[in-house]
Every structure is written in C-alpha cells, then in structure tokens.
Amino acid sequence: MMRPFADIEKLAAGHKNGKAALDALLDKTMPGQADIGKISDDRLLALFCQHVFSTGLNWKVIENKWPGFETVFHGFNPNMLAMLPDEAYEAMLSDTRIVRHGAKIMSVRDNAIWFVELAREHGSASMFFANWPPSDQIGLLELMKKKGSRLGGNIGAYSLRHAGKDGFILSRDVCAALVREGVVDKAPTSKRDMAAVQHAFNNWHNETGRPYTQLSRILAMSMG
Known about the structure:
Blueprint: H1 5-15, H2 19-25, H3 33-36, H4 41-54, H5 59-72, H6 78-83, H7 86-91, H8 102-122, H9 125-131, H10 137-147, H11 153-162, H12 172-180, H13 191-208, H14 212-221
Helix pairs in contact: 1-2, 1-14, 4-5, 4-8, 4-11, 8-9, 12-14
C-alpha cells in the first residue's frame, strides 16, 4: 500500500526549504484541456518537430536555426507538408537552413500526415490531444509511438507538457521516486510497469486533487 502523497510532498518541501518555497516552484495555473485545443495544428506540429530535432542536440542549436525550419517546412502547415513529393524532402537534406538529418526530416512529413488524419476525424489534431484524458496518459503515449514518427517515450511526453497538456514526465528523478515508493522495481518500460505508474498517478490525483504535472514535479523534487 502506498503511503499518503502528503508524506512525499513533505520530502520535497524539505529539499526546497519549506512548503512555501516548494509551492513557488510549482506551476499554479495549469491550462485546461479546452485551452490546448485552441492551439493551431501548425503550431502544435512545429512544437512536436522542435522536440524531435532537439533530441541528441543542444536545444540552442535548434532554437538558433528555427526561423529556417519555419521557412523550409512551410510554417508547418500539415496539409501542405502531407502533399509535398518525396523529391521536396530529399532536397532538404542539402538545405543548410535546417539540421540535415534524413530520418527526422521525413518524420515531419509522417507526423503531418497523421495530423491531417486526426483533423479529419476530430476537427483538429490539437482537439484530439486536448480531449484525451490524463488518467490514460500511457495510452496516448503508446498511440503517439505507434501512429506518430519519433514521438515515443519522453519525446512525446515533453511535447505534450510544453503544449500545456497536463501529464507526468518519467525523468530520472521521477523514476527513482516511483521505485522508492514501490510502484515499480526499476525504470518502467514494460506495459505492466507503465500501467502501474498510471494507476499510481491516478490514485495520487484523486487523493490530492493536484494536476498530474504537479504530482510529477513533486515526485522529482522529493529526490533532492
């Protein structure tokens, strides 16, 4: 049986010089799901692609080149990107305005195609992500891994977090806290372990009323 989350919060407060200091570090205004749905699909696709291209690189490299990315990828308009011929993407391999990584370049096209499909079915891709319940985040991450391109694992989770969607991040410290609390016995990778993680977060959310993002941050800070 897991201990009350209040005890975990006390651990985090102890590492951050008290409850007031801990509260100051937490996001107090979490966007609602409807707000996430107001993000245009081109901006959401751009955000996802930023995370894909930043993987394995210094974020500053992508940030400095981002105006070039916006130009080369036509403002990340999903419909336009989905219709571009292979030759257009092949030409990008020699375009110095972007990071020339073939698999990541093609992931833009693949994710644009997925966004178009989501928009056709749900009105917009952003509304699809907005309406997915945080109580089944592992289901959404699994779908992003399966249907998206290079959006598995924490790339997908960080993309959603930066888009303003409530959810947890399985960072090193969060995983260590989950092991400490007996939720899993190692960093979760299997479906069984991921289900246990989701169950724990759902219980903590119901216990405290806190958003999943705050629960995740408190868990991380409880490690020091």
